[in-house]
Amino acid sequence: MNEPADLELMLRRKDALHYSVELSFSHPDSETPVTPLGQQVVNMRLDPQDLLVHALDPTAYGQAITDCLFADPALRSAFANCRAAAQSQGLALRLRLAIAADAPELHALRWETLRDPQTGQSLALSEQLILTRTLGSADWQPVKLRAKAALRALVLIAAPDDLADYGLHPLNVSAEQQRALQSLGSIATTALAAPGQASLPTLISQLRSGYDLLYLVAHGVIVDGEPWIFLDDGQGRTARIAGAELAARLADLPLRPRLVLLASCASAGDGTTATLAALGPRLATTGIAAVIAMQGRFSLATNERFVPAFMQELQRDGRIDRALAAARQTIADQPDWWMPALFTRLRSGRIWYEPGFDTQDFAKWPTLVRSIERGKCTPILGPGLLDGLIGTTRELARRLAEQHHFPLAPNARDDLPQVAQYLAVQQDVDFLRDELEEVMRAQLHAIHAAPPDGALDQVIRSVGARQRAARDDEPHQILASLPLPIFLTANPDRLLADALAAAGKQPQVQSCPWNRHSEVQLLEQAPLTPPNPQTPLVYHLFGRLNDPETLVLTEDDYFRYLIGVTRNEELFPKVVGSALVNSALLFLGFRLEDWNFRVLFQSVMNVAGAELRRRHTHVAVQIDPQEDRVLDPRAAREYLKTYFGPASALQYQTNISIYWGSAEDFLRELATRVASDK
What we know:
alpha/beta, Rossmann fold, 37% helix
């Protein structure tokens, strides 16, 4: 399915009754947005009080707000031109409503009742003109997408036995739970529905294990501008939880759900100027990537039809905005059809992806499997294999940047070499290493409850051993099972060597002598015996944790490393140089735009004998661009395919095909194919 074109409509406050309107149009195949209004200044006059007379009539309300928004002929014309441009390419048009921070009163309006200024049809019911609300967030945590097959959902149904004391109707827990499980279909789902389970502590405890979707069924109200939700106190009685508390607890999670669906009365607001304080928008502004919440008293009868339809559509392509529009169509005959509102910061609107090679990119699984069976394959491990252990390098960089007030551009805050360079210059290298170690320890404790003391290298090894024991598909364990003689790694840990030892092999471990310290250490290392599948070589390219002086961390380190290995190819053992030009290369766990991959790619591709690579299948593993990392994920995807695809063969005598998915996705599929070939 083609990605829709994107039209952002920004509203900014000018005075009490007037707002400026700005348009920005983006075609999915273009990296440059267009300003359809050019230099024209378009203003809108809107008095929210005038709309209240239509509060009980969604059709009249929608027409009134449409007349206000599209009163200027220039805006109507620009809107029509953008829609025509999308239609001419066979694309849907996503209308992204963005309200500036200086106009919070506009959040209270029922934008989902907007009508097409030309046809009069409801925009929120269309899959060809998709309406969403965009809310900014000060949160820097990346939005990581998960493979569709790995999605997990958590359902919480709060039905304490004293709801009547608050004037609230009881919930049919059994029916709600059955409906939720049926709606979620093949998605692995955990339900918290029994008396005492639907409490805030239990909810947070469950979410710590990592869920993609949270479906919360509960009563909610807004009192004096503050949203409240009625959960369980753990004993079957009501616990009134302030929206601010729930939002703060969710924001503090190391792994947050990507989508929260709030089937709660008035979870998006009550039509007053206090809407931004309502639960749905509050969750969105504190870091949840997408929130669907109700703008009023959404009836249970309508919810019974809406949720199954939404979940079914969501599983088609993972696009939340399109699925919501399709689900609204199933309740269009109900007076509260407009109440579900989507608040999101996702650019593509997706919450999952389908891992794999594009069919035109790669049809050589049999060739790759045969290369592995013959020992003619060299995996090169990147930091993505540690994401589940200590978080991504970008998360580490952001934590360091926040703690030490990193002063450079916001988009550099998640670049670990840049942040590391700043700390090394402002303080010193030892300070940088100590601070990075503390951040890694904090991540290990938050994600795996690892002890706060002990050598960091040993703590990581201990957590890694637990993961291998608990998971048959642990990445290092899969790699250790392959009959390969050489493994290269850009990671500083000993997880691969431990996994090889656990598999009954005798790994040899060495590091690249890129600086004088590592040159001295090289002289003290045991002589290397010819690697084979039983005594494989694990070669650390960027240093090891148990020898901090060998670590490549800062921008200067990467420059020195690249200069050193480019000028002196003998820095690599001969068996490593031979493997780089005479075997299939598997780049596992890299993000292709990051420093470590680019430096590594350049150094590897400049090894003498590169012409031999034409004989082998080469693969780079790369997850889809993160939603909040690049402006246009689809354009970034196409750029990377062009840069590292067939065109690169002319420059590097090789062809890197991109697998769109995580290293874990790739290794699971590889293990299955290797096993089936035996």
